[in-house]
Write a structure and sequence with these properties.
This protein has 223 residues and is an alpha/beta fold. The chain is built from eight helices and eight strands; from the N terminus they run βαβαβαβααββαβαβα. The chain has helices spanning 16-26, 44-57, 82-85, 97-103, 107-120, 158-172, 189-193, 210-222; strands spanning 4-9, 36-41, 62-65, 91-94, 123-128, 141-144, 177-181, 198-203. The longest helix has 15 residues, at 158-172. The chain starts with a strand and ends with a helix. The structure holds 2-phosphoglycolic acid. 2-phosphoglycolic acid binds at residues 9, 145, 150-151, 181-184, 202-205.
């Protein structure tokens, strides 16, 4: 049985009120299906409230973050250490291309972040932009997200994404699980997930709306 990861990446969106409204709409409608592993990664402002709402509701959705500090706990103004986040999050999206391109995040920084989350049991989900991107040792989950496909409405083809997933597995190990991200929507969900090399989807824009996110989840179960 193939496990299907569906990860919502809210990026820098949603007030606490908007985040809680989303949880109230999405949480009760997530099918209790053991194939599914559904995650929401809110920005830090809403993280604690989302975590609480998911726990109180008993919803089949888990909570992650979009970044962690490359440093430990201590005098790092503006940073949030993995150890501090481990009370709230079980997964961390690391090395997203927006961070690499806008904030100068490098493969070395991503590797340090992977090491930090590993110490506290947060699962790293490392974003790679192509089959050449470095994947730090010990990482079991990556998301192939070609930059041209992010937020553009022009996804990669399932064929090409599957090929990149195959190349990544060849280099970094067959146990590596590869998600696809970049202009995923309800219409293309099945085509990506029908590829055996693709284990799930990382969803940006359409994850912000309850209906479009739920549609992706429903289509995923048909794949
Ligand atoms: P998108 O973003 O779904 O809006 O294309 C995906 C991502 O950047 O994770």
């Amino acid at each position: 049985m193939k496990k299907i990861w569906i990860v919502a990446n809210w990026k820098s969106n949603k007030t606490i009120a908007e985040a809680l409204e989303w949880v109230g709409l999405v949480g009760p409608k997530i099918p209790k299906d053991e194939r599914l592993s559904v995650w929401v990664c809110p920005p830090f402002n809403a993280l604690g409230e989302v975590k609480k709402a998911v726990q109180v509701g008993g919803f089949s959705i888990r909570v992650g973050v979009q970044n962690v500090s490359q440093f430990g706990v201590g005098a790092y103004t503006g940073e949030v250490a993995a150890q501090l986040l481990s009370e709230l999050a079980d997964l961390a999206i690391l090395g997203h291309s927006e961070r690499r391109n806008l904030l100068g995040e490098t493969d070395e920084m991503v590797a340090r972040k992977v090491a930090e989350v590993a110490k506290v049991g947060i699962e790293p989900l490392v974003c790679v932009q192509d089959s050449e991107t470095q994947v730090p040792a010990g990482v079991k989950l990556v998301a192939y997200e070609p930059v041209f496909a992010i937020g553009t409405g022009t996804p990669d083809t399932p064929e090409n994404a599957a090929g990149v997933a195959r190349s990544l597995k060849k280099v970094w190990g067959q146990n590596l699980e590869v998600l696809y991200g970049g202009s995923v929507n309800g219409d293309n969900t099945k085509a990506f997930l029908q590829r055996e090399e693709i284990s799930g989807l990382l969803v940006g824009g359409p994850s912000l709306e309850a209906d479009s996110f739920l549609e992706i989840i429903d289509r995923a179960l048909e794949a």
